[in-house]
Amino acid sequence: GLDPVLVRRVEVTGEGGPEAAARTARYAALEAAAAETDAALVLLGHTLDDQAETVLLGLARGSGAASLAGMPSRTGRFARPLLGIRRETTRQACIDAGLTPWDDPHNVDRGYARVRVRERVLPVLEAELGPGIAEALARTAEQLREDDEAFSEQIDEFIEEICEPSEAGIAVSVGALTANPAALRQRIIRHVVLSEFGVSLSRAQTIEVARLVTDWHGQGPIDLPAGIRVTRSAGRIEFAAR
Fold this sequence. Notes:
Blueprint: H1 17-37, E1 42-43, H2 48-61, H3 65-68, E2 74-75, E3 78-79, H4 87-96, H5 113-129, H6 133-162, E4 163-166, E5 169-173, H7 174-179, H8 182-197, H9 203-214, E6 222-224, E7 228-233, E8 236-241
Parallel strand pairs: 1-3
Antiparallel strand pairs: 2-3, 4-5, 5-8, 6-7, 7-8
C-alpha cells in the first residue's frame, strides 16, 4: 500500500468562480502536504484530454497565447507525466492493473464550463471535423508554450536595461518600448506589472497602457487594479502604487 496517505479538507473561497477557487485550494493543500512529507515532486494526473479542454476554454475566453499554451509539464515541484496520454488510455491501464478509477462527481456536473467542453464541445468537433482534435489542440499548446518561453527569455535578457526605479514603483524607457514590436512591447508591460505589483493585466488594460507609447497625445494617467497608476513623464512610462 501507500504510506503515508494524507487526507486534507479544504475551504473553497476566493475570487474567480468556484472552479478557480477550488483549484487554488487544491494546490495549496498539495503544496502543504509536499512540504510536510519533504516530497521532491508531486505527480498530477492531467492527461492530453485535460490539455485540450484547457486550450479550448482559453480560446473561448480570448485569454491570449499564455493561456492557450495550456498546462506545462513541470511547474516547480508539480509535474504532469500523463499530458501526452489520452484519458481513456489511463482508465484502461487502471482496469488492466485491476484498479478501479475514482471519478470526481464534479467531473460530470454540467454546471461547470470544463465539463460542458468535455461532454459536448469536443465530441461535436470530433464528429464534424474528424478524429484527432484533442491531439491537435495539445500540439497547439506545445507550440505556443515554446513561443511563450522564447519571448520570456528575451524579456528577461534586457528588462533590467530598460527599467529603473521611480518614486513608489518602477519606470520603463519610452524609447525602448517604441523600438520593440507590439507583441514584445505588450509582454514587457505585463511582465513589469506582474513582477513589481503581482497583478496580471488583461489584454484591454495592457493595450491602454501601450497607447501611452504608441498613441501619445498628452493624455492623463491610467488607473489599473490594485491601486496601480501609470503615467508618461520625461520619456518614461512610470508604474506606481497610489
